[in-house]
Amino acid sequence: MEHYTIATVAEESPDFRRVLWTGEHTQLVVMTIPPGGEIGEEIHEGVDQILTFVSGVGEAVVSGQKRKVAAGDLVVVPAGRKHNFLNTGENPLILYTVYGPPEHADQAVHATKEQADELEEAGKDEPPASSDAS
């Protein structure tokens, strides 16, 4: 059984992105966005994403719509939608997110956004191959 006190785990992670668990259909990831930072505008084709904010304040941008986010907020990003999340506060914006299906390499840890971008561009952050892929 996997069990997390997720808000505590998320707040204790200093990394930009840390994959906590990867299953066949979903993946659990915690993220810490520094003040003035952002996830970066992106689109996940074929991958839904649900983000839950633990602490800090920021702005969610999904398909051109903007909304302020804070602790306790949840944002759904359907597959194929352009999105970004920005830290607009003075403290880290901390969240956990569930991807379905997995989006990142199992057990990936990216200390910074720059490191995450480099690994993605190099093809070193690929999700595990699904056993039911055709």
Automatic annotation (TrEMBL):
PANTHER family: LIGAND BINDING DOMAIN PROTEIN, PUTATIVE (AFU_ORTHOLOGUE AFUA_6G14370)-RELATED, QUERCETIN 2,3-DIOXYGENASE-RELATED. Residues 30-99 form the Cupin type-2 domain. The lineage of its organism: Bacteria, Bacillati, Actinomycetota, Actinomycetes, Micrococcales. Residues 105-134 are annotated as: Disordered. Coiled coil: none annotated. It comes from the Bacteria. InterPro entries: Cupin_2, Flavonoid_dioxygenase-like, RmlC-like_jellyroll, RmlC_Cupin_sf. This is Cupin type-2 domain-containing protein. Residues 105-127 have a biased composition (Basic and acidic residues). It holds the Pfam family Cupin_2. It comes from Actinotalea fermentans.
